[in-house]
C-alpha cells in the first residue's frame, strides 16, 4: 500500500464559526483604537477647529466653513463667497464635498465652530478594519484571523502617513475593491451585486477626491473583466458596466464641481512619484528598518507595507516552498485582472523619471509625452502605488492562512506577531495629529460692526496660496472673521484657483475701484493708493484697514481712533 500524501494527512479544515459575523466589528474597533493612538483624540471633537488652521488643513476647513454660508447651487459644493468674486468649491479646496453636501441641510443645527475631518479620519480607520476583516474572510471563517487581518490592514503605513490630506485617507475603498475581486462570485446575481457595490465605492470616491476614483475606476473595470472571464457575466454586460462606471464618475465630478478653477493640470509629474524602493522604504517612519534616500517630493509615493506585513509576506513565500500542495484548487485566475491593473498603476506611480534611492535609472518621457494633459491632471503619480501595496498585504494574509488552514493556530500566531511588529515599528509620535496649532482669532469688538453694513472683507492685494503672497496666520484670522460675520472673502487656499486671480496678485488699485460694501485690509506698500482715492483708513488690531471715504457707519468711525493719513 502506498503512503498517503502529506496533503491527505492534514486534518480537515474546521467548519465556519458563527462568531465570524462579529469579527469585522472588532477589527473596526481596533482600527479606531489605532487612530486614537496616533493622536486622533486631539482632532475627533467636532467643535475643535484650531488644529486645522495650518497648511492644507486650513484649505479644507475654510472650504467647508464658507460653503456653510453659501446658497445652494450648481455645482452642489460651490462657494461663490470664497475667493470672491470668482468663487470656488469644496471640491477645489479638497474639503470632502460628499460629506459637506450631506451635512449642509443640517447647517442650522450645527455649532458655528464645527469640523467633520476628525470624524472622517476616524471613519476611515474603522472601515479599514471592517473591510480588512471581510477580505480575510475570503479564505478563513475564523474570527481571530479576520480580526487580526483587519487590524494589520488598519495599521497600514500608507494610510497613517496621509493625515496631511484627510480626503486621501479613504484607503478602505481600495481594500473594499480587493475584497470584491477576491471573494467568490458564483452566479449572475452575485456578479450584479458586486458591480453595484463597485459603483457605490466609485461614487463615494468621486465625491471625496479625484485620485481615489482614478484608482477605483480601473479596479472596477478590472472587476467587470474578471466576472466576464469567469463566465458569470456576459461580455456585453461587462462592457456596459465599465462604461457605466466611467459615466458615473464623470457625472459625480461635474455635480460636485471638480471641473473648475485653473484647469485640471499642474506641474510636478515626475517629481511627486514613487521610488522603486517604496514598498520597503519607510522614509523615516520605522524603528526597525533603515530608510533609503528619495528625491525631495517623493513622499507622495510612500507605499511602505510595514515591517509586520513584510515579515508575513516573507513567511508566506517561505512556507509555499514546502506546503505548495495546500494551494491546490486555489482560483488563481480570479486575481489576474486585479494584479495586472495594480501593476499598471504601480508603473504609472514611477512616472517618466524612474528612480532607485532617489537617483534616476530610466527615462520614460517619450512614453508619457502624448498623455501630458492626463499626467498633469494626476501629477502626484506616486499615489498610484497604493493598490499594489495593499494587494501585496492582502496576498501575504490570504496566502499564509491558506497554507495553514488545517493548522489554524499557526495562522493565528503569525498574524498576531505581524500585528504586534507592525504596531511597535511605527513612529506614532511623529503623527501630525499630536502637534498643536496656535490659531489667532481677531479679538477687537469693532470687527462685529461689519455685520449688516458690509458684504465683503478683502485683503489688498489678495493672498492666495501658490499664486500670490500668502501670510497664513493673517489669511486664517481674516477668513474666520469673514465666515463668522457672513461676509465674502477674496483670499485663501485652494488646490485649483481661478486663473483671473493671478493677475491681481501685484496689480495696483484701479481708479474708482474702492467698493463701498467692502472692508479692505491693506498691505503697507499699497496704503498710499487708498489714501489718494479718499479712503478712510485706520489701524485695527495692528492691521491697516480701509473703507470707502463715504462710509460713516460705526466701523468706519472706529477706524478714526487710530487714523492713517
Provide a short characterization of the protein structure.
With 565 residues, the protein is an alpha+beta fold. It has 21 helices and 10 strands. The radius of gyration is 27 Å and the shape is elongated.
**Spatial ordering of strands, largest sheet:** 6-5-7-9-8-10
Q: Hey, roughly how much beta strand do the residues contain?
A: 5-15%
* Percentage of residues in helical conformation: 40-55%
- Poorly predicted tracts of residues: 1-19
End-to-end span in angstroms? 110 Å
Count of separate DSSP helical elements = 21
Count of extended strands: 10
- Helix-strand makeup class: alpha+beta
Radius of gyration of CA atoms, rounded to a whole number: 27 Å
Overall geometric form: elongated
Largest sheet: 6 strands, mixed
Average the pLDDT over all residues and give the rounded result: 92
Folded structure, characterized:
This protein is an alpha+beta fold and 565 residues long. It has helices at 6-9, 23-37, 55-69, 97-103, 117-136, 143-154, 157-160, 172-182, 188-206, 210-229, 235-256, 307-320, 336-350, 365-368, 372-377, 386-403, 408-425, 472-484, 501-504, 527-532, 554-558; strands at residues 78-79, 88-89, 353-356, 359-363, 456-460, 488-489, 518-522, 536-540, 543-547, 563-564. Strands 6-5-7-9-8-10 form a 6-stranded mixed sheet. Helix 6 runs parallel beside helix 17 (408-425) and helix 16 packs antiparallel against helix 17 (408-425). The longest helix has 22 residues, at 235-256.
Amino acid at each position: 500500500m502506498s503512503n498517503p500524501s502529506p496533503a491527505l494527512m492534514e486534518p480537515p479544515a474546521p467548519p465556519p464559526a458563527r462568531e465570524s459575523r462579529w469579527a469585522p466589528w472588532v477589527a473596526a474597533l481596533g482600527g479606531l483604537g489605532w487612530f486614537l493612538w496616533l493622536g486622533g483624540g486631539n482632532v475627533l471633537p467636532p467643535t475643535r477647529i484650531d488644529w486645522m488652521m495650518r497648511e492644507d488643513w486650513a484649505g479644507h476647513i475654510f472650504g467647508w466653513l464658507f460653503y456653510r454660508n453659501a446658497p445652494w447651487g450648481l455645482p452642489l459644493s460651490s462657494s461663490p463667497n470664497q475667493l470672491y468674486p470668482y468663487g470656488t468649491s469644496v471640491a477645489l479646496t479638497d474639503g470632502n464635498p460628499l460629506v459637506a453636501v450631506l451635512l449642509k441641510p443640517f447647517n442650522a443645527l450645527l455649532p458655528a465652530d464645527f469640523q467633520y475631518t476628525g470624524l472622517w479620519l476616524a471613519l476611515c480607520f474603522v472601515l479599514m478594519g471592517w473591510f480588512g476583516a471581510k477580505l480575510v474572510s475570503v479564505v478563513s471563517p475564523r474570527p481571530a484571523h479576520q480580526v487580526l487581518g483587519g487590524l494589520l490592514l488598519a495599521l497600514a503605513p500608507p494610510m497613517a502617513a496621509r493625515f496631511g490630506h484627510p480626503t486621501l485617507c479613504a484607503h478602505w475603498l481600495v481594500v473594499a475593491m480587493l475584497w470584491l475581486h477576491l471573494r467568490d462570485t458564483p452566479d449572475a446575481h452575485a456578479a450584479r451585486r458586486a458591480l453595484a457595490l463597485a459603483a457605490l465605492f466609485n461614487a463615494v470616491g468621486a465625491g471625496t477626491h479625484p485620485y481615489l476614483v482614478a484608482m477605483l475606476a480601473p479596479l472596477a473595470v478590472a472587476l467587470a473583466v474578471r466576472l466576464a472571464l469567469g463566465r458569470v457575466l456576459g461580455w456585453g454586460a461587462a462592457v456596459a458596466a465599465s462604461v457605466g462606471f466611467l459615466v458615473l464618475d464623470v457625472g459625480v465630478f461635474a455635480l460636485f464641481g471638480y471641473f473648475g478653477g485653473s484647469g485640471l493640470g499642474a506641474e510636478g509629474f515626475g517629481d511627486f512619484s514613487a521610488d522603486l524602493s517604496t514598498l520597503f522604504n519607510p522614509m523615516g517612519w520605522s524603528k526597525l528598518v533603515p530608510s533609503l534616500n528619495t528625491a525631495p517630493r517623493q513622499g507622495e509615493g510612500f507605499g511602505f507595507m510595514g515591517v509586520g506585513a513584510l515579515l508575513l509576506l516573507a513567511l508566506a513565500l517561505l512556507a509555499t516552498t514546502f506546503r505548495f500542495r495546500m494551494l491546490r484548487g486555489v482560483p488563481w485566475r480570479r486575481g489576474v485582472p486585479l494584479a495586472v491593473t495594480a501593476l499598471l498603476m504601480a508603473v504609472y506611480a514611477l512616472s517618466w523619471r524612474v528612480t532607485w534611492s532617489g537617483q534616476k535609472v530610466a527615462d520614460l518621457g517619450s512614453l508619457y509625452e502624448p498623455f501630458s494633459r492626463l499626467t498633469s491632471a494626476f501629477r502626484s503619480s506616486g499615489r498610484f502605488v497604493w493598490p499594489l501595496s495593499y494587494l501585496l498585504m492582502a496576498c501575504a494574509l490570504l496566502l499564509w492562512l491558506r497554507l495553514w488552514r488545517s493548522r489554524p493556530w499557526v495562522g493565528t500566531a503569525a498574524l498576531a506577531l505581524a500585528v504586534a511588529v507592525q504596531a511597535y515599528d511605527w513612529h506614532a509620535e511623529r503623527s501630525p495629529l499630536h502637534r498643536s496649532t496656535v490659531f489667532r482669532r481677531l479679538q477687537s469688538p469693532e470687527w462685529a460692526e461689519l455685520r449688516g453694513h458690509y458684504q465683503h472683507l478683502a485683503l489688498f492685494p489678495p493672498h492666495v496660496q501658490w499664486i500670490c503672497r500668502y501670510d497664513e496666520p493673517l489669511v486664517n484670522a481674516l477668513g474666520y472673521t469673514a465666515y463668522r460675520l457672513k461676509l465674502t472673502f477674496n483670499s485663501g487656499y485652494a488646490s485649483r484657483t481661478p486663473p483671473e486671480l493671478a493677475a491681481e496678485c501685484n496689480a495696483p488699485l484701479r481708479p474708482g475701484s474702492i467698493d463701498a460694501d467692502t472692508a479692505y485690509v491693506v498691505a503697507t506698500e499699497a496704503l498710499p493708493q487708498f489714501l489718494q482715492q479718499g479712503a478712510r483708513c485706520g489701524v485695527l488690531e495692528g492691521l491697516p484697514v480701509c473703507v470707502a471715504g463715504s462710509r460713516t457707519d460705526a466701523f468706519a468711525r472706529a477706524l478714526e481712533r487710530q487714523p492713517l493719513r
